[in-house]
Design brief:
Largest sheet: 5 strands, mixed
């Protein structure tokens, strides 16, 4: 996949309409078998350029770490919110992803005056917002949010691997790889696994 650098075109258009404090929001971990769904929200400073912003999935781990540090140092504001597996199962993953983004946006102080969201609109968010298709590739603020969310989630999954190395979270970060599915077959589900993402019904009651 060709890497596309995210731009500020959409944010700049909104600024011309008088919206200055604009947040981008995105989530990561939506398709995982284990671990939280994590959302980021970032208000970029129009006077502090961050070169290299792109969809977090198209960046190496080292690039994400470098950009994560730059975003947190240069942004006007940023926040990260996570929803754990039990809450994901209670809400369903789609609603949990939207709720994580809503909480991430609401954690920014002062609140943004507009929000750009990757693909969706966030329910019960009483702030002007726009869903941007492929926003994490097109929009700098959304790309920045995807990066801080991805780095935060990856760090947590590395900690989970240290606590319980049986599942190989350091390698797949909870996604449904062949290695991860084989570990679930062998060890059953842990408290970190989402019951709504169960690959085999026979494993439902096997909780370590």
């Amino acid at each position: 996949m060709v890497r596309v650098r995210a731009t500020r075109t959409i944010e700049n258009a909104l600024r011309r309409w008088g919206f200055y404090r604009i947040a981008g929001s995105d989530e990561v971990g939506r398709g995982c078998l284990a671990g939280p769904v994590v959302a980021g929200a970032v208000v970029l400073d129009p006077d502090a350029h961050i070169p290299g912003l792109a969809d977090s999935k198209m960046l190496s781990a080292d690039e994400r770490e470098r950009l994560n540090d730059l975003i947190k140092a240069r942004a006007l504001a940023w926040s990260v919110c996570l929803l754990e597996p039990a809450e994901i199962d209670a809400l369903n993953i789609h609603r949990a992803s939207l709720e994580a983004m809503r909480r991430a946006v609401m954690a920014i102080a002062p609140l943004p005056v507009a929000v750009l969201v990757d693909a969706f609109r966030i329910p019960e968010l009483h702030i002007a917002q726009r869903g941007v298709l492929h926003g994490d590739r097109r929009c700098a603020a959304i790309a920045a949010a995807s990066i801080v969310a991805k780095v935060s989630r990856d760090r947590q999954m590395m900690t989970e691997h240290t606590n319980d190395p049986r599942y190989g979270y350091d390698r797949h970060k909870g996604y449904a790889t062949a290695e991860h599915r084989a570990a679930v077959e062998r060890f059953g589900y842990s408290s970190l696994h989402r019951r709504s993402f169960m690959p085999q019904a026979s494993l439902f009651d096997r909780i370590d």
